[in-house]
Design a protein that fits this description.
The structure holds 2 protein chains of 2 kinds.
Chain A lengths: L11 E6 L3 H19 L2 H21 L7 E7 L3 E9 L2 H16 L2 H13 L8 H7 L4 E7 L2 E9 L4
Antiparallel strand pairs in A: 1-2, 2-3, 3-5, 4-5
Chain B lengths: L7 E2 L3 E3 L2 E8 L2 E10 L4 H18 L4 E12 L1 H15 L8 E6 L4 H11 L6 E5 L3
Helix pairs in contact in B: 1-2
The chains are: A alpha+beta, B alpha/beta.
Chain lengths: 162, 134
């Protein structure tokens, strides 16, 4: 199955695994080590691994129950690194994700992050801080692709900022 | 309590790759965290634990709680939320019963350098981000 991400000119990693929580830590550490070597930039490598980890956590939490595998692909192109996590999800979760993304992309990232922290502190349940954390703390751009019940979310790191 | 008083141990927390070891010495509570916060729902574990530390700090009328996160390799966003909840609780205490929450971090660890100063912005009057390298 292809991931339809940035054309590869350099490094490319793709993993497919069952949605087990304990794999996330393993993938995060691998991604950090891999990009530490590939980019020679510890900060960027840790930002990329943070994004991979947060996206995978969301995928494990919100993937539809019949989903057997999650897929993560990370491509280093000429101008950017594209971290893409793809999974199937229920329509309600997809709609929530669309709204969430529209909300966090509409405001100034730091203000949105602080506001969402305050909201999350006063409500029960999931933090829903992962996406805004990727935008604000890891300085990535987020892009969502939905094809029926399949969701692909990209965290894109421009290389010219490095 | 004075400088010669030995530190008071409080039950540490060891779970799922995370160690949290608090102690009280010279009217300061010090909380050393190590490992990683990457479990699925850290709130189940950490929120009640932070609440206990909060109660203990107020019971002992402490004015300063230091949380040393330098040996914490990673904290997921659900873990960040537990700290947000602690800060929100600490912010709600009346002034005479309040303490300063000092979050110590290593600027060489990317998530610490970005997350900790951001958390401090939630309550700049009581939360102090303290960069300690090495």
């Amino acid at each position: 199955m292809t991931m339809e991400i940035t054309p590869v000119t350099a490094d490319y990693v793709e993993m497919r695994f069952s949605p087990r929580w304990t794999y996330i830590s393993c993938v995060r550490k691998f991604v950090a080590s891999f990009f530490m070597i590939g980019l020679s930039d510890k900060e960027r490598a840790e930002q990329i691994s943070l994004a991979a980890s947060e996206l995978l956590e969301n995928a494990v939490k919100y993937a539809s129950e019949e989903e057997s595998y999650l897929r993560i692909a990370i491509a280093k192109g000429a101008n950017e690194v594209d971290v893409c996590v793809k999974n199937k999800a229920e329509k309600t979760n997809i709609n929530t994700l669309r709204r969430e993304l529209a909300l966090i992309q509409a405001g100034q990232p730091e203000q949105v992050y602080l506001r969402k922290m305050e909201e999350a502190a006063n409500t029960e349940g999931q933090s829903r801080l992962g996406l805004i954390r990727i935008m604000y703390e890891a300085n990535a751009r987020l892009r969502l692709e939905v094809n029926d019940s399949e969701v692909a979310i990209h965290a894109i790191f421009p290389l010219e900022q490095m | 309590m004075n400088a010669s008083t030995p530190s008071t141990p409080i039950t540490p927390l060891y779970a799922e790759g995370l160690n949290v070891v608090p102690s009280i010495e010279e009217n300061v509570m010090r909380v050393r965290m190590s490992g990683a916060v990457e479990m699925r729902d850290p709130g189940e574990l950490l929120t009640p634990y932070w609440n206990k530390l909060d109660e203990k700090a107020r019971e002992r009328a402490l004015r300063r709680v230091e949380v040393d996160m330098r040996d914490l390799s990673f904290m997921n966003s659900s873990g960040i939320l537990t700290l947000v909840r602690w800060i929100t609780k600490a912010k709600s205490h009346p002034k005479e019963n309040a303490y300063q929450l000092v979050l110590q971090y290593d600027r060489n660890v990317t998530w610490q350098r970005t997350s900790i100063p951001t958390l401090a912005k939630l309550a700049p009057d009581i939360v102090v981000p303290a960069e300690i390298n090495g």
